[in-house]
Amino acid sequence: MLLLLNKPFGVICQFSKHERYPSLAEYIKTPNVYPAGRLDTDSEGLLLLTDDGRLQNTISHPLHKKPKTYLVQVEGNPSDNACAQLRKGVMLDDEITLPCEASIISEPEWLWPRTPAIRHRVNVPTHWLEITLTEGKNRQVRRMTAAVGLPTLRLIRTQIGDYSLWQNGTLLNNGQSLMLDDTPAPPSLTRRSTPDELKARYSKRPIKPVQPAAPTHNAKGKPLRASPDTPLSSDPRLMSDRNPENQPERKPRKAPSGGRRARPTAPFANKRTKTRP
């Protein structure tokens, strides 16, 4: 399946409930679809959702270099030098962005109003830029415009590869979704099975519980008997060299005469003086 969504401002790109922002579950009712790539909460525009892991990887992975087009409202007067810096690449942290397309455009006539509206400053004008990237770093467009002295006020994504907000000449309204392909993706080894699929798979055959193996040695490494009534000779878990029946018979030791051992009377027995007696 493949679905398009014109994501409104302030919607977080997840289906689970969020304590502060509305989620995609309020706009998408189709089950088992997930975003192919992300769009910041404070950004608007095109978002692709699919249930096909391969298609999701093709759309979002940087190796495929899918071009993404953004309309950016910036604060200030963008110059040709600033656009040239954006096209050439700017330094972000410790790396330079890849070359991109950047141009100054007029305000789009089809633009929908944003809620809440952007801030307006009387003495600072605003302009619109069109930027097309082939990479997707974290908040890259906002960081790029800020690096050339043009803070971003509003950011709208209009196109990802061959997919656009315009379908058959009609613009998707803010918050509107469109199903391009309703065919479910075939099961794959990399996709997690749904609870219904797991239930159908294991309902025909019972699952036998796996019993843990009985310990053969205690914490000190000594072998254990199978049970108190089992003789040592019939316990298969015992080693043969530990079995008393396999040990050679030993003669008992003789007790010393007199009950106590006599002290030696060798020369230099006196340790204090070390002299002969």
TrEMBL record:
InterPro entries: PsdUridine_s_RsuA/RluB/E/F_cat, PsdUridine_synth_cat_dom_sf, PsdUridine_synth_RsuA/RluA, PsdUridine_synth_RsuA/RluB/E/F, PsdUridine_synth_RsuA/RluB_CS, RsuA_PseudoU_synthase, TruA/RsuA/RluB/E/F_N. The keyword Isomerase applies. Its EC number is 5.4.99.-. GO terms for molecular function: catalytic activity, acting on RNA; pseudouridine synthase activity; RNA binding. Pfam families: PseudoU_synth_2. Residues 238-250 have a biased composition (Basic and acidic residues). Residues 177-277 are annotated as: Disordered. It is an enzyme of class 5 (isomerase). Residues 2-147 form the Pseudouridine synthase RsuA/RluA-like domain. Keywords: Isomerase. One of its GO terms (biological process) is pseudouridine synthesis. PANTHER family: PSEUDOURIDINE SYNTHASE FAMILY PROTEIN-RELATED, RNA-BINDING S4 DOMAIN-CONTAINING PROTEIN. Belongs to the pseudouridine synthase RsuA family. This is Pseudouridine synthase.
